[in-house]
Design brief:
17 helices, two-stranded antiparallel ribbon, 5% strand, Preprotein translocase SecY subunit, 3-stranded antiparallel β-sheet, mainly alpha
Length: 444
């Protein structure tokens, strides 16, 4: 306990780190405050039906990502998800379109151009999703919340406000990334997810305790399962395969350089949370095309306890894991770097054989990592079926919500630990170091 208090004092004593933390908290507070501002033309006292209709399925997950703003008909109802969707599309275009790939390789200027196009696309995606959201608000059961006197201006004002709201949230994320702590987009999504945890837990507690004997025991079992899943997820996030690397000795004057033995860490889950984000975005499209109602064939993609949803979701996660790993992991470049620094893998020739060897190992460890990631994605539906728990609380037993929280927290702790170590302070742990990882939007 004394070491923990001392670590907190060390963190607060670093002016730069203290300013980053305060700046991040202020911007996150502004985001949460905006999540409670209701759109013009809607009676906030009649939103009960809207809240009930977004308690399950894909709409429940979307509402969890935006911290309940979707069910509150807030000006931030769409959150930062349109920006994520636009970024995913631009990433895929850089793979499929050679001209886009060429622009991306132009360095800083190319990245700025891609980012600018992503912002333009975000406006179009937000306007499209805003129109679908208006159709959802006007659907039977939700239309009672609309104020008739405002009907002539509702469509235009809502599209404009939702678009501006998403752009403002995107700007907040960029400011947190530049001047705050952690990745801004990831922090915004995480704070939205965490905001619903206390309410979801209290609802689960109330539901279990009113069912009579055994309710408290079931809650205890659920909490133990949740702790076990978090520990397993941390192992998946930080798991690496260490490839031994030797460096040739060099004699310069009277001094010897190199000759050290090191390891090349290859992550089991190099793609991080992005495959789940990709799969979630793909399965979310049918819901948009049906006006968020989930009617007809789209019903299979609005219920995460549905077997069809689980199968399609798992296939998408595994496929996107291999795709995104191929995007961010370049064995050829890694082999060239080893050769340039006089490093080599024992028993493997430098150059292309080294690249093939690293690529083969990466493919072998990516497959179990992708399967485990797919399992994590469908765990909320499994727990909801097995334990008959509420949909809101089940989302914290896996899927995007838990993976985002674990990834963002680890990444933020790593940044804090780096600041401490730079100033000759002890790290956050007595043994080992916190390993950050690629969070929600680090690669966007």
């Amino acid at each position: 306990m004394n070491k923990f208090i001392k670590t907190l004092k060390n963190i607060w004593s670093i002016e730069e780190l203290r300013n980053k933390i305060i700046f991040t908290i202020i911007l996150l507070f502004i985001y949460r405050l905006g999540s409670f501002i209701v759109l013009p033309g809607i009676d906030p006292n009649k939103l009960e039906n809207l809240s009930q209709s977004t308690n399950s399925g894909m709409l429940g997950l979307l509402d969890a990502f935006v911290g309940g703003a979707f069910s509150k008909a807030s000006i931030f109802a769409l959150g930062i998800m349109p920006y994520i969707s636009a970024s995913i599309f631009m990433q895929l275009m850089t793979i499929l379109v050679p001209q886009m790939a060429k622009i991306q390789k132009e360095g800083e200027s190319g990245r700025k151009k891609i980012n600018q196009w992503t912002r333009y696309l975000t406006v179009l995606v937000t306007a499209f999703q805003a129109a679908a959201y208006i159709g959802y608000l006007k659907s039977p059961g939700n239309a009672e919340a609309l104020i008739p006197a405002y009907g002539n201006f509702f469509w235009v004002s809502t599209v404009i406000i939702l678009t501006v709201g998403t752009l403002f949230v995107m700007w907040l994320g960029e400011k947190i990334t530049d001047k705050g702590l952690g990745n801004g987009t990831s922090m915004i999504i995480m704070i939205g997810i965490l905001a619903r945890l206390p309410q979801s837990f209290m609802q689960e507690w109330a539901a279990r305790t009113t069912r009579g004997a055994g309710g408290l025991l079931i809650i205890l079992v659920e909490v133990l399962f949740l702790i076990g899943i978090i520990m397993g997820l941390i192992m998946l996030v930080q798991g690496v395969r260490k490839v031994p690397v030797n460096y040739a000795k060099q004699i310069v004057g009277n001094r010897q350089f190199g000759g050290a033995r090191n390891f090349l860490p290859l992550k089991v889950n190099a793609a991080g949370v992005m495959p789940i984000i990709f799969a979630q975005a793909i399965l979310f499209l049918p819901t948009i095309f049906t006006g968020f109602t989930g009617e007809g064939w789209a019903r299979y993609f609005t219920d995460h306890t549905n077997v069809v949803y689980m199968i399609v979701y798992s296939i998408c996660v595994i496929a996107f894991t291999f795709l995104y790993t191929a995007l961010i992991f370049n064995p050829k470049q890694m082999a060239d770097e080893l050769k340039r620094n006089n490093g080599f893998i024992p028993g493997v020739k430098p150059g292309q054989p080294t690249a093939d060897y690293i690529g083969t190992i990466m493919d072998r460890i990516t497959l179990p990592g992708a399967i485990l990631l797919a399992l994590v994605g469908i765990l909320p539906g499994i727990f909801e079926l097995v334990f008959n728990m509420s949909q809101g609380f089940s989302t914290f037993f896996g899927g995007t919500s838990l993976l985002i929280m674990v990834g963002v927290i680890l990444d933020t702790l790593q940044q804090i630990e780096t600041q401490l170590l730079m100033r000759q302070y002890d790290g956050l742990m007595s043994s080992g170091r916190v390993q950050g990882r690629q969070t929600v939007a680090s690669g966007l």
